[in-house]
Amino acid sequence: MPFLTDQNIADEVARVFGTYLTTFTSRTGQVRADVFQVGREVRAHVSFPTGLEPTTVTDLYLSELWKYARDNGYADRFRLIYS
Known about the structure:
By secondary structure, the protein is α+β, with helices and mostly antiparallel strands. It has helices at residues 7-17, 62-71, and strands at 3-4, 19-25, 32-38, 41-47, 78-82. A five-stranded mixed beta sheet has the order 1-2-3-4-5, with helices on both faces. The protein starts with a strand and ends with a strand.
C-alpha cells in the first residue's frame, strides 16, 4: 500500500506543516509525498529522495496522489508542493 502513516512525521513535523494525514511512497521509492491539512486546504509536500527530478521520475505518483484526494473528498482543495 503506497499510503502509510509515518509516526515520526505525525509527532514532529506536523507542528509546522499542519495536521498530518498520510505519507505516499511510490512503487520504487523515487517519490515521497507527506500530506497535511491546513485549514480546509490539503497539501502534498512532494520530494524525490533518490535525487531525480519531476521530469525524470518513472514511478507513477501524480495519478495516485490525485486519486487519494478524490477518494477522500479533497480534490477541490488539494495542492502539490514540490520540495
